[in-house]
């Protein structure tokens, strides 16, 4: 048993890191606009494909590929905000409408990608080669990099939203848009900023993921449901709670796969989410409203 | 006196309800004016329109010689026209100091923000005592102080205060009124909405009575009506 448990926990840690990166991007938009961006996964995929084209097809190197992938995701994210979210600001049903429009964006991007890049599986090279050991379990250095990078990105975001003028303006707009406007914050521009940053995170996550999984049109949309579970599980709010929830879900998923297999894991995760929401409507770590 | 703010024939309202039916008023540079009138007659709607939260259906708003009709609220603040809105709850999860720092957001507010923060603290010492407290845990009076403090952090050329003492205890009302008088003394032009006409007369050179979305009358401090006449204006002619 011991021989399986440690590698399982390590893969849970890796999943948790992936969910933490995704969920922090989702909650950046949620806390600023009160909108769930269902195209977040598709933006990851966009990032991975552009990175692959620039780095592998054009042979411009992995770093240039990363920059191009993240850039493409940001452009797509800002376009989604401008075209599919902005027209519904102030609408009473904005949250529901944007569920539909961002889902539509997700589908369009995913289909578009399979038309442009075709069905052949692709893979990005690893940022670092070789293997390391975590608690005696062998892990590729690239996966270890993701495990280290996730908390670094989360800390950077925490610092940005807490300490910088522009980061604080995101929180202000989310908490009271008209008060924010009356101290001179450009609210629509702040919405674009939130989408742009979130898309940059999506792009980064996508390119990192593209070298441990095959780059397929479903690269980002597959883990999206679990990332959304994380955001709700964490209580739709603080960065810390969302990060905590990401690692809990990642570990649970890895252990459930070990004990129950792939087939039942999603169902049990959903059951856990429902139970948490029944007993703690503000999320696992959420405070009472 | 040159006109700092000039509101000409402004009509505005909400989706289906027109509220303002052609408002004309002005504020001179260095002047303080007061607005009063019964509840629900359009004072807040007018101030929201001036600050760009609502777009007028017709009319013109000039500020400092510039046409700001229909401009973005952020651009209006950047020009120096700043408002502390009625019942402002601000940013619930942000601390007092953090909120004040953020309020120096617009480019005109950035230089010398530390000095302005000290001014706000001298105006409202309680805000200095509660630096780290979150806005949503403040009392009504403290939140009002924070709201006015935020507006001061914006480095206003003209400051609008919409019912700054609404719902406060007499003691707090007096404290806030002293602070507002102090702001006027420091030379910041003001538009203040208040129910207490006596306070407005002590503060402002001219008062406008807003009724049913129009300016029903303009009162000059130098030939101000007496208490009974003001009460009559308020409660309408139906009393007679
Ligand atoms: N958001 C809104 N939507 C629709 N009607 C509103 C809204 N806000 C205020 N009103 C209406 O506009 C009128 C004027 O309100 P307001 O400007 O707040 O008056 P005052 O500040 O003088 O008390 C009232 O009849 C009020 O019901
Ligand atoms: Mg009002």
Automatic annotation (TrEMBL), chain A:
It is a multi-pass membrane protein. PANTHER family: AMINO ACID ABC TRANSPORTER PERMEASE PROTEIN (PTHR11795:SF445), BRANCHED-CHAIN AMINO ACID TRANSPORT SYSTEM PERMEASE PROTEIN LIVH (PTHR11795). The chain crosses the membrane at residues 6-26, 33-52, 58-84, 96-119, 139-161, 191-212, 224-249, 256-279. It is found in: Cell membrane. GO terms for molecular function: transmembrane transporter activity. Keywords: Amino-acid transport, Cell membrane, Membrane, Transmembrane, Transmembrane helix, Transport. Belongs to the binding-protein-dependent transport system permease family. LivHM subfamily. One of its GO terms (cellular component) is plasma membrane. It comes from Salipiger marinus. It comes from the Bacteria. InterPro entries: ABC_transp_permease (IPR001851), BCAA_transport_permease (IPR052157). Its main location: membrane. One of its GO terms (biological process) is amino acid transport. It holds the Pfam family BPD_transp_2. This is Branched-chain amino acid transport system permease protein.
From TrEMBL, chain B:
The keyword Nucleotide-binding applies. Keywords: Amino-acid transport, ATP-binding, Nucleotide-binding, Transport. GO terms for biological process: L-amino acid transport. One of its GO terms (molecular function) is ATP hydrolysis activity. Pfam families: ABC_tran. InterPro entries: AAA+_ATPase, ABC_transporter-like_ATP-bd, ABC_transporter-like_CS, BCAA_Transport_ATP-bd_LivF, P-loop_NTPase. The keyword Magnesium does not apply. Residues 2-237 form the ABC transporter domain. Belongs to the ABC transporter superfamily. This is Branched-chain amino acid transport system ATP-binding protein. It comes from Salipiger marinus. The lineage of its organism: Bacteria, Pseudomonadati, Pseudomonadota, Alphaproteobacteria, Rhodobacterales.
């Amino acid at each position: 048993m011991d021989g399986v448990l440690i590698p399982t926990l390590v893969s849970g840690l890796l999943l948790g890191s992936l969910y933490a990166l995704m969920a922090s991007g989702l909650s950046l938009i949620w806390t600023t606009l009160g909108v769930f961006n269902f195209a977040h996964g598709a933006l990851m995929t966009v990032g991975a494909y552009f990175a692959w084209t620039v780095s592998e097809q054009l042979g411009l190197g992995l770093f240039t590929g990363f920059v191009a992938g993240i850039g493409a995701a940001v452009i797509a994210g800002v376009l989604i905000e401008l075209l599919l979210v902005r027209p519904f600001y102030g609408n009473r049903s904005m949250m529901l409408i944007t569920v539909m429009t961002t889902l539509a964006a997700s589908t369009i991007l995913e289909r578009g990608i399979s038309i442009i890049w075709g069905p052949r599986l692709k893979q990005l090279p690893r940022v670092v080669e070789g293997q390391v050991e975590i608690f005696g379990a062998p892990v590729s250095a690239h996966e270890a990099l993701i495990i280290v990078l996730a908390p670094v990105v989360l800390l950077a975001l925490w610092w940005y939203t807490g300490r910088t003028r522009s980061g604080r303006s995101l929180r202000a707009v989310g908490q009271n848009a008209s008060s924010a406007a009356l101290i001179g914050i450009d609210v629509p521009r702040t919405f674009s900023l939130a989408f742009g940053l979130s898309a940059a995170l999506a792009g980064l996550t996508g390119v990192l993921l593209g070298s441990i999984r095959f780059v397929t049109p479903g690269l980002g949309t597959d883990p999206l449901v679990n990332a959304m579970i994380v955001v709700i599980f964490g209580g739709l709010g603080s960065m810390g709670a969302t990060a905590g929830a990401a690692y809990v879900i990642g570990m649970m998923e890895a252990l459930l796969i070990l004990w129950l297999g792939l087939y039942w894991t999603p169902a049990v995760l959903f059951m856990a989410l429902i139970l948490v929401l029944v007993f703690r409507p503000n999320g696992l770590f959420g405070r009472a409203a | 006196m040159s006109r700092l703010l000039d509101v000409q024939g402004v009509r505005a309202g909400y989706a289906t309800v027109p509220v303002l039916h052609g408002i004309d008023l002005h504020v001179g540079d260095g002047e303080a004016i007061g607005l009063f009138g019964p509840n629900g007659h359009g004072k807040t709607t007018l101030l929201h329109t001036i600050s760009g939260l609502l777009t007028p259906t017709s009319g013109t708003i000039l500020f400092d010689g510039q046409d700001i009709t229909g401009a973005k609220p952020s651009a209006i603040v950047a020009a120096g026209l700043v408002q502390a809105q009625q019942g402002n709850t601000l940013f619930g999860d942000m601390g007092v100091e953090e909120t004040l720092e953020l309020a120096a957001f617009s480019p005109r507010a950035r230089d010398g923000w530390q000095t302005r923060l000290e001014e706000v603290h001298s105006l409202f010492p309680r805000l200095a005592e509660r630096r780290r407290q979150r806005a949503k845990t403040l009392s009504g009076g403290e939140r009002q102080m924070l709201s006015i403090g935020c507006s001061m952090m914006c480095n206003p050329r003209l400051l609008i205060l919409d019912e700054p003492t609404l719902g406060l205890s007499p003691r707090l009302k007096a404290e806030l009124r002293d602070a507002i008088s102090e702001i006027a003394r420091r030379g910041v032009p003001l538009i203040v909405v208040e129910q207490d006409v006596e306070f407005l007369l002590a503060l402002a050179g001219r008062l406008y009575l807003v009724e049913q979305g129009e300016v029903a009358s303009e009162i000059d401090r130098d030939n101000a009506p007496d208490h009974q006449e003001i009460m009559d204006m308020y409660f309408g002619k139906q009393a007679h």
